Write the structure tokens for this entry.
Amino acid sequence: MLTIDEPKIADPGTGAPPADGNSSCRRILVPVSTPDQSCPALAVAARICAQSNGVLRLVHVRTCDPPLPIAGRCYLETAGDAAAVLEEALLMAWACGGPRATTAAVDARRSDVAAAIAWQAAAWPADLIGLTRRPRLAITRLVGGSVRDQVMRKASCPVLAVPPGQSDRVRRVIHRRRPPGPPTPPPPTVEPAPTA
């Protein structure tokens, strides 16, 4: 597992910045549960992709319960909700560095989220997976770990764990770079009816 605790970006496994500006991390996958939680990993991945002329892939896993005999599968969010999450994450990534990016929404059972992320990374194929590192409760370590821990164990490529400290700075940058909304139309004018 690689970690970034400072703003400088290092070559994976060496801790040293790239000497020639080229990086072997040209295809970076970032799983997005919610854009706010994934914001630090998005920011770092966008910077790496911008420096290496790479491609960013944002993956959102839409979880479902096991199929029931009568009702079928029960999804916790609609396909439109999943698309909205990916769209907001894509805007955040573009605001952080403007790399080329693609998105994918994947359906999986709650217990298979980490496997779905690792499979997407292998199928794409990703050079690196970027995750936001979150503080964990002791009970989650005993029960089998979080989704992030499981992704780190199942992934076939390096995993970069980014601390959550950069998210406030990234939100300020995104807020500054958002284009203003469409102009508000002038209020309608009502002319009095002609009198006879």
